[in-house]
Amino acid sequence: QMPSSTDSTGAADPAEPHIVGIQTPDQQAALAHHNPARPVFVEGPFSLWLRNKCVYYHILRADLLPPEEREVEEIPEEWNLYYPMQLHLDYGRSGWDDYEFDVHKVEEGPVFAICMAGAHDQATLAKWIQGLQETNPALAQIPVVFRLAGSTGELLAPSSGLEEPSPPPPEGQEEEE
Q: Could you give the CA distance from residue 16 to residue 120 in angstroms, rounded to a whole number?
C-alpha cells in the first residue's frame, strides 16, 4: 500500500482500508481446476494473536467434494523406489507405550487464498476477490458466497493496576470488622 500523493507527511492514513493477501502456486492451480458449478466461500474474520496484538484474517475456500467425486492421485511406481511416499518403521514397544491416540481427523475443503484486511466488510473483501481474478481468471466464472461473522470484538481484561470494588454483601448479612 502506497500513501496517496496528496499526503504531505508521507505516512499512510491508518484508518484507510488495506488488503494483504497470499496465494501459493499450488492454490492457484487448485482454483484453476475448481468446478465452476460449485461456489467458493469467503469466510472470516478469524483471529490470530501476534505477540500482544490480535489481527484478523479471511479465507477463500470451497466445500469438500463428496467421496464419489474425489480424484485420488496415483503415485507412479518408479517414484516409490527413489522417493518413498510412505515409511513403515516397526519399532519394538514396551508395556508402557500408549497405543491409543486421541486424533480426530476432520476433512475440510481446500483453501485457495488468505487475506488480512483493514475492514471486515463485504465491499473490502469483494475488492480482494477482484484482485485475485487478475491472477486467477477462472475465479470470474465461479460464484463467490460471503460467510462473514458478525463481530470481531476482543475480550478485554480489566487492567492490573485497577481493582474492581468487591460486591456488596447479601441482604440480611452484615460485614464483620
A: 12
DSSP one-letter string for 66-89: PGGGPPPPPPPHHHHHHS-S----
Whether 139 contacts 131, CB under 8 Å:
no
Asked if residue 84 is part of any domain, the answer here is no
The per-residue pLDDT for range 38-77, each reduced to its tens digit, is 999 999 999 999 999 999 999 999 999 888 877 777 766 6
Q: How far is CA 127 from its chain centroid?
A: 18
pTM above threshold 0.70: no
Cell of residue 102, nine digits: 486421541
- Report the distance separating Cα 42 and Cα 124, nearest Å: 12
Angstrom distance (rounded) from CA 111 to CA 30: 9
In a domain, 38, yes or no: yes
Domain count, the chain: 1
Nine-digit cell string for 7: 499526503
Domain coverage including residue 21? 16-68+106-152
Angle 22-23-26 from CA coordinates, rounded to 5°: 155
pLDDT at residue number 96: 67
